[in-house]
Specification:
The chain is mainly alpha-helical and 128 residues long. It contains four helices and no strands. Helix content is 66%, strand content 0%.
């Protein structure tokens, strides 16, 4: 065992990190979601521009509704706030990356899951 170089544990750590990064990256994009056009606004077709503006208007309303909810942690609150400011300052022309869409979906899924639990508790199905 003395013949093993001291860099061996570092190599294992680096390989483990790379493997986990690949898994995380694939997991984020494997959900089969369709994202709005993410190209530059000036390079989009008229239909793609209309789609992006419509999606941005709806997203702005949704994000403003959930912003300030006490169930959000500080990172999620800051993320929603930064997206709201971005959409307001660019009038919806800003591109939202697939990674940002995944985070938006995670936050909205969290909020929807909490709503379902609250509804079940109100019906008396779940006891506290």
């Amino acid at each position: 065992m003395a013949d093993v170089p001291s860099t061996f544990p570092k190599a294992i750590l680096i390989l483990t990190f790379c493997f986990l990064w690949i898994l995380f990256k694939e997991e984020a994009f494997m959900e089969g979601r369709v994202y709005p056009p993410t190209g530059r606004f000036s390079e989009l077709t008229l239909l793609e521009r209309k789609t992006r503006l419509d999606v941005a208007a709806d997203l702005l309303n949704i994000l403003q509704f959930w912003r300030g909810d006490p169930r959000l942690n500080s990172w999620e609150e800051g993320f929603l706030t930064s997206l709201v400011r971005l959409l307001q300052s660019t009038q919806g022309k800003a591109k939202i990356t697939p990674k940002q869409w995944d985070k938006i979906h995670q936050i909205l899924d969290k909020m929807a899951g909490d709503e379902e639990v609250a509804a079940e508790m109100a019906e008396g199905d779940i006891e506290v």
